[in-house]
Amino acid sequence: xxxxxxxxxLGPLEVRLEGSAVVLRAGKHRALLAALLLRPNRVVPVTxxxxxxxxxxxxxRTRGTLQTYVMRLRAAxxxxxxxxTAADGYRMRVDPLAVDxxxxxxxxxxxxxxxxSSDLVTARSAFAEALDLWRGPVLSDVPSETLHSEHxxxxxxxxxxxxxxxxxxxxxxxxxxxxxxxxxxxTRDHPLRERFWAQLMLALYRxxxxxxALEAFRQLDRTLDEQLGIDPxxxxxxxxxxxxxxxxxxxxxxxxxxxxRARSSPMRLPDDIADFTGRSWHVERVSGLIAGGSVPxxxxxxxxxxGKTTLAVHVAHLLRDRFPDGQxxxxxxGYALGAPADGVDVLSRFLRALGVxxxxxxxxxxxxxxxxxxxxxxxxxxxxxxxxxxxxQVRPLLPGTASCRVIVTSRDDLRGxxxxxxxxxxxxxVFPAAESASLLEKLLGPGDHAELAVRCGHLPLALRxxxxxxxxxxxxxISGSPxxxxxxxxxPAPQRLFxxxxxxxxxxxxxxxxxxxxxxxxxxxLTVLAIAxxxxxxVPGRYRFHxxxxxxxxxxxxxxxxxxxxxxxxxxxxxxxxRGVERCAELLYPGIVRLPSSPTGPAPRISTSAEALxxxxxxxxxxxxxxxxxxxxxxxxxxxxxxxxxRGYLWIGQHVGEWLATAHHGxxxxxxxxxRAAEAAMHANLGTLYLRLGEYTRxxxxxxxxxxxxxxxxxxxAEAGALNNLSLVHRRSGDLxxxxxxxxxxLEMLRSxxxxxxxxGLYNLGQLAxxxxxxxxxxEHFSQALTLAPxxxxxxxxxxxxxxxxxxxxxxxxxxxxxxxxxxxxxESETLENLAALELASGNTGAALSLASRALSLVADGGDxxxxxxxxxxxxxxxxxxxxxxxxxxxxxxxxxxxxxxxFASGEVRALIDLAVVLRDLHRPxxxxxxxxxxxxxxxxxxxxxxxxxxxxxx
Length: 955
Hints:
Layout: E1 6-8, E2 14-17, E3 20-22, H1 27-37, E4 43-45, H2 46-54, H3 62-77, E5 83-85, E6 89-92, H4 100-116, H5 120-132, H6 145-172, H7 176-189, H8 194-206, H9 210-227, H10 234-245, H11 280-292, E7 297-301, H12 308-318, E8 327-331, H13 343-353, H14 365-376, E9 382-386, H15 391-394, E10 405-410, H16 415-421, E11 423-427, H17 433-444, H18 450-455, H19 460-470, H20 482-488, H21 492-500, H22 511-518, H23 523-531, E12 536-539, E13 542-544, H24 547-560, H25 563-588, H26 609-633, H27 636-653, H28 656-672, H29 676-693, H30 696-713, H31 716-732, H32 736-749, H33 755-771, H34 775-788, H35 792-805, H36 808-821, H37 825-841, H38 845-859, H39 865-881, H40 885-902, H41 905-921, H42 925-942, H43 945-954
Parallel strand pairs: 7-10, 7-11, 8-9, 9-10
Antiparallel strand pairs: 1-2, 2-3, 4-6, 5-6, 12-13
Pfam families: BTAD, NB-ARC, TPR_12, TPR_16, Trans_reg_C
Domain OmpR/PhoB-type: 1-94
Protein name: DNA-binding transcriptional activator of the SARP family
């Protein structure tokens, strides 16, 4: 990658300077910069720039205003020479590879060249590099119609071609099976792009899925006819004919397959610092130890501010090619004022980065650590564990395999890692005088900086803060601590914000959070702090600062701000977080009942579900830290309110470890404040969580506590809700009689409750009736639910029951209505699965296959696993109808494994029955009888009479 500023146009416009984001808030400034970047090192005439920036409505003083904009861009970029003035326009002097759009074109060209010379592995790597640069629609936040019309179509078309070329390479490497899900998505998103359809047909055919390949052609034929009135191209027709004939030239190539890990390598390092200076001995030493093969762990030990993190990240970037399976990074916050990084959270993040679906990540740290070691076995990966305070903080994250290496940074030498884990310590001291001088010359220009370096103690952090303080203050000298001077030089408002930011318990903060904390508009103040190097912006819109700066800020806060002012600011920050979570809850899961709260501040600017999910994903570590801190130090009410508001997100996202932590902190806070309604809600929260984990005894215990508390409070609606959830526990554990009794009690209490609450109880009673084979009762319950709450779920469940009754036309009407209304992914998947089963019952196997495949794509990776189990069963039944017995057997086995893991009793029996049938088709009678016998025993234990009868027919 080119050194100096980095520019990103493939998505929202971003500028990064020395590792920090440069924020351009004015849309016209972004349009001007984009126009120059798209033609680097070439003069762009003023007339064109005016058109790009103002369109048809230029200002009266066009040239003067444009000059002002250029001046502001130069100031923002920190180097006036980047934008040069020419006779009739302006030129952006920049390495084209510093602009992602040009880097994308370069990587794509390298990929094509490698592919043409049959170097397929290099081609795949280059194409993947090109595609990784895209973060969204090109120039998505640049308000310029002419730039969009001139450049977006060209770049988007090039993106599509790179997708096609990469897929051609993957097909040539024999990776057809892995491409099918991606190609289903590409053909859905680009239904008129025939090349994707051809690739999908070929991938399906090579995976022994000939019927699906032919159905894909028919689907394209219909689409082209309906939308354009044309036929598929001759190329597509020839491919279709070849698939029909089973042409041998379509067979998959015989290649040496690479392991899956080479196709999913997480690159999670922070950006390397652009002006890295000195440390040549350390770089060589650490690189030699890591690359030499005999030292598994290198610990960089040194005082705070000495540059350990910068050195570790720099070396990790230099060694990336030696670790092709990826690099992982985490800040363990071992010396932070607040709590250190939670082990479960860190392990969960690593496992997600390595491709583990959220629902498969165990909640226990020891189990997560074991899973991590298993995944890293044999892989060549580099882990950077930053700011570790003790060996025990590091050990759960160690790979335990000779192929991986670890760099740890710490203020201590962590001798326990030396004795027990073979670590080697590399001390990191302050800069030598020459390196201090070199850094200061880079930051301040030529001059005699020896005295300044001595006053800074040759400490890199102090040198950078001092240089930021002196920049623009010609002739000023430093006498005292650079951090103290930088703080003292600030106006009162930035000083106050700097102090209060030390209250933030999490790893970073946004301008909105800072504004709430200090009760000011913090945008400009944060810019002042960033210029002074007292905070940094590692990614656009987010800020953090060094632990030592946090400690100094906390010290001056205690001196300057009264306890009441500090408490008010802390409460305001919690209020901001609560308003944000509640706003997201309204958008993402409005049907989940939450405890009442009364936040007073403005809500973050969140208007769509996508924005809500992005906000929660970004703020999750801060929210968890805030809940923990509030539970331990107060105000307790905010801890349980945040935990309650966040549970829907943690449930949907399957963030099990975080869910467990926040629920326990919320319960602790509710008990501490003697708030019985909150205590009941937290018990109910934990009951739901343990149900999700399949720990039914614990789930029953927490639900019983919640029911007792709600009964004592006289809250019948909440008690009924807890009873409803308790019935689910009994149902999942196989005690269907207890489940039915509990549901009946629940519905008796819900007679005067809101319609949504009653309908939820009816849903569960109807589903229980389906499991018991009481289909007429199920239709009755679902019909009542539909009358009370005519939503997508009601139509889906009634459609399912009607299908099971054989009333296919009525079932279709309800299922199609459910799709029209719309639903969350799990709900939509259920609807599609039932439509697939309906089409299968009608003999339309092609349509069934398409619908079931779409259903699985919505829930396969981290979605509701009970729904995913049912979808896999229906998809397997469809493959069996197409005589694809091997695929069907695999799907039934996957469904059986998942059903047993989550305690989905009827799903387990259904999977066993279908597996028995397909094993018989595969001429494996002994295995078939074994599956049927298991189905008989399990269905008899559970009281599933209808399924038991089916199983006995096979045994």
